[in-house]
Amino acid sequence: MSEKKLGMLIDLSLCIGCNACTVACKRENDVSLGAFNTWIESFDVERPDGRIARANVPKQCNHCEDAPCVKVCPTNASYRADDGTVQIDQDKCIGCKYCMAACPYQVRYQLESGEVQKCTFCHHRTSVGLLPACVSTCVGYARTFGDLNDPESDISKRLAEAKGGEVLYEDLGLHPALRYIGLNETEAMPVASAIHRGGNVMRPYEG
Amino acid sequence: MINFQSSGKRTLANLAAGKLKIDVIDCTLANGSVTPTIPGINWIPIKPATNAAFCAALVQKIIADKTYDADALSFTTQKAAVAGGYGAYTNATYLVIVDEGHPNHLKLMRAADAGIDAPEEKDKDGKALDQFVVIDAATGQPAVHSACGKGALEFEGEVNGVKVRTGFSLLKDSVNEYTMEEYSEITGVSVEDLERIAKEYTSHGTRAGICHKGGSAASVNGIDTVMGAAVLHAIIGANQMIGGNAPNSPAPTTAGNGARYKLGTIAGKPDVSTKNATYISRTVKAWEKTDEYKNRVAAGEKDPKPLMPWFGNGAASDSQALLSIVNRYPYQAKILTSFMCNTLQATPGAMRDEVVERLCDPEVLPLHIVCDVFVGEHAQYADYIVPDVTPYESFGLPTTGTTFTGYGTTVRWQVKEPESMLLDDGRHASWETFLADVAQACELPGWGENAIKDADGKAWPLRDACDFYLKAVANLAYAEEPVADISDEEMRVQALDELPESFKAAVTAEEWPKVLNVLSRGGRYWPMSYVHDADGRRSRGFEKENQTYYYSEKRALNKNCYSGKRLPGVFGYNPETFTDLSPMTDHFSREEYPFGASEHKPRFRSISMLSNSPVMRDLCSHNYIELNREDAAALGIKDGDKVRATTPLGDVSEGIAMVRAGQTKGAFALAFGYGHQNYGAQDIEVDGAVTKGDPAVAAGVRIHQMLDPTVTGVTGDDVISIIAENDAASPGRCGGMFKIEKA
Prior knowledge:
The complex is a heterodimer of chains A (207) and B (743).
Chain A: E1 6-11, H1 20-29, E2 38-46, E3 52-60, H2 68-72, E4 78-80, E5 86-88, H3 98-102, E6 109-110, E7 116-117, H4 123-126, H5 133-137, E8 143-147, H6 154-161, E9 178-181, H7 183-187, E10 195-197, E11 200-203
Parallel strand pairs in A: 1-9
Antiparallel strand pairs in A: 1-8, 2-3, 2-10, 4-5, 6-7, 10-11
Chain B: H1 5-16, E1 22-26, E2 41-45, H2 51-64, H3 70-74, H4 78-83, E3 89-90, E4 95-97, E5 133-135, E6 142-144, E7 156-159, E8 162-166, H5 167-175, H6 180-187, H7 191-201, H8 223-235, H9 291-298, H10 318-327, E9 335-339, H11 343-346, H12 353-360, E10 367-372, E11 384-387, E12 408-410, H13 431-441, E13 448-453, E14 459-462, H14 465-477, H15 488-493, H16 501-504, H17 512-520, E15 523-525, E16 547-548, H18 553-556, H19 584-587, E17 595-600, H20 614-619, E18 625-628, H21 629-635, E19 642-646, E20 652-660, E21 667-671, E22 684-686, E23 689-691, E24 735-742
Parallel strand pairs in B: 1-2, 3-16, 9-10, 10-11, 17-21, 18-20
Antiparallel strand pairs in B: 4-8, 5-6, 7-8, 12-15, 13-14, 17-24, 19-20, 19-24, 22-23
Helix pairs in contact in B: 2-6, 2-7, 2-8, 14-17
């Protein structure tokens, strides 16, 4: 296995919730209606100074180093590729949905034809030197992508400044390749609206 | 507007770097840059239709603290301002006649009023220039404005026996009509924030500004917001200054009389203007200046009232035109042609059965032709629909607004063959081909053979879009220094050698490789030095006349055609009124109808469009009635409840509640562009073939504003009129009076 480990860093202070990434991803990966490889969860929060702000948290496959989906897959359809990403071999997928149940981030979905899909970090683009569609379209440069093992990569430099960044569900110890800046700070703020996935209600506001 | 991609990029980068501070004054937290963890930006909730009160509070504080730029305000001419290092001046020092008995009461004082015998000055067209009177700051004596560099800001007294005051002194009174506490109560913005923002705004020299778009003035009292922002820009001398209020994206002449083609000159153009004709929208002309008024007075009527309001200070208005058409006043429209617009849906309060019925009645409107890609609400009721082309099938040289701050412009061009019907002569149906063919049939000038003259006087035909727009591209390619010819390799790589012959034929053989150069780059952009100058001003155009009205004579003299009331010539906070300038709260109870309304740009739609996009509907199936969580709790409304907002006249907007902290108290909001009736929601039959509609297109809610009860059914039994701005004529989109309850 090569030393490469592709990862993504999202600076939440720069995400304006425009959902350009969501649309670019849908077009690039021909994601079916009702399904998303990446999406943004948006909600009002109370800042520590008492003012209200709008949080936008992009979500997608975390490409975990210790990926539960890979572990439970009975046919090895889900696997870790040489570049450190988690991929699905559609020919081997039998649609058993174990991986969907095992993923703590709930990023996998089943196609009508039975196979399971999720974000590939745009493997078809990154393998030829392009950036993932969500990164290249990002309005605020909130997303950075690259080799986490290369200290000279943009992502490594930005992570070094951000003291390694933060991850979702750190306590699970899955070592995700999806890192955030400002996640803990944002999550510490009281939520003051429904949580919207795009513009649709994901969790209503209880008040 | 920070949601626009390129302005979002710049804003975020500068906020993150600590180089920028922003207060977002908005009814709804809809501005993406107010993220929880970015420094330097605050969302300040404000109640709809109170932006002028916010501006007035700031001006009051700035004047009280004397933190205004007295130099910038005192210049009496552009020349003096430019010599002083600025790029603009104001009329703050000009004297206003406040003597009620004087024939020129409310007008700015002229040399003749002051008994000053000043030599006449003429502009470049030979027209005599107004000679306003100021108190010369150097001598303390009255003087013609052009005869001194600076005037006294504060003066109240007599000149030539006439009572006068400076605009600045009148403004001071106007903004002091309410206390800071009252402004806070009106706007919902705390006194602390009002004072903090006033201080911050005046702490950066000329490098501060107010970025406000049309929506901020989309209420019946909207002009005060526009005037307030103008006063605030000038109060720190920020006009034409980089980092202040410099215009976005200046560009060379393209679609006018440019370097290669005289596209702005039409030989034989009919002499029709507002001087000899009347807009159907009842704008630009004051009621007293209309033939109807004069005829009725001549017939012995005393103080006649019009059937519908006239707006002497308003520009052409599609909303007012629509209502004029359905009311057949001031005259009947015989043919209405509409292009790429949805006026019916975009006019608050107009999309209702009574209006639609009349729009469809041939007695009211004999012929209605729409050219569009979609059968939207407006197009649905047309007699004929001419298929149009989409953005990728059309041309344009849009001034780029917020997307590009430098000198230059983008170019949109037909990158694919249009899907619209192919005509026998090889052209595709579009707005341009429709116009060209109708013009030819009617033998109108400016179209067909010999329509366009080039710089050498040679005549060219205008039969299709490319005939016009590629000449505009040639003007761009030859502006300043001509661009280089495109290289053969670039032409091949971009397949520009495969463009239609009609494109090539639209310009000369010499121009074609330069036109291709511009097309290949999607426009032309000059270095930033064409815009930014080292001395802090914009580098071009700052010498040109740029005056801010601290006192608007036009507004002060605008007599309401129903009540005869006048609004002051200086800005201030004027509560919402109906057309006759009577306060809304004189007619209906604020206790019973406590909520205002506002609309904001949709994140998952584009103005009235994109509800037909499955991806956009997937991202957001409908909009919401957004309510502050405290208001919702008081009303017993929970997030996700179906709720109803009702006007005193019974207009109902019904939708799903979004209960949130990101909405101001005392008002509800919704994203514009939802709540369609047509636009693909309806079945459409063309020549017997039915295309089934998709009800999902119609999802969501739009605001149903009330009609104006001082005009509708009052001035004539069947008159329908919308609530509107007294000066601008623009519809009262935001504000109004509503009660909200669970549906």
